[in-house]
Amino acid sequence: MPEPIMGLCTLVLAAGQGSRYRELVDQDKLLVPSRNTPAAPGVLAATLESLTGITERLVVVAREDNLALCAWLDQRAGSFGAEVFTVRSNGLGHSLAQAIAQYPAERGWLVALGDMPYIRRETFRRIAAEIEQERLVLPRHAGQLGHPRGIGSRYRRQVMALDGDRGAQALFAAGAVIEVEVDDLGVLQDIDRPEDRRDA
User: Fold this and answer.
1) Domain count of the fold of the chain
2) Which residues form the domain of 126?
3) Which end of the chain is more exposed for a tag (fewer CB within 10 A), N or C?
4) Each residue's pLDDT tens digit, 97-117
């Protein structure tokens, strides 16, 4: 296995409400099987499996009032080499701002979403390898921009000022962005509804 990329911290954002999924089946989407088979790893577990060892540090950002997820992380985060950072979240941007304030990184951050379990490991590594202090990085597949996103350390103050649910969209819209073409549909696929899960 290649060595972790030093100077980078991966932040896995898992602090959302998942309200659309809960309305349909009353389950936390991050803890359900990632594919339509009971033997599949959970959505967040599958994401973390692909991220283990990519960067120097791996952190899961979770809402402190999501007791089921926090209990799962207490038991399982260590098996992925992940730390856990709990927040009182007012949305994606607020969670990201708190995490970047808490976890400075020399080169920057690889920001992944916990509900995107189909991104290939090599895609995470490709995006991470492009991150430098002055860069914003994102993947492109079939003409569409996706996740994960790379944020260079020079943007730390701007990210720390984020709030609400838009994440770093405004930052990427205004900044000079490196787009990496990838043959990976997973960069566009999140789990919002039960039917979003792939078959085995």
Assistant:
1) 1
2) 7-195
3) N
4) 999 999 999 999 999 999 999
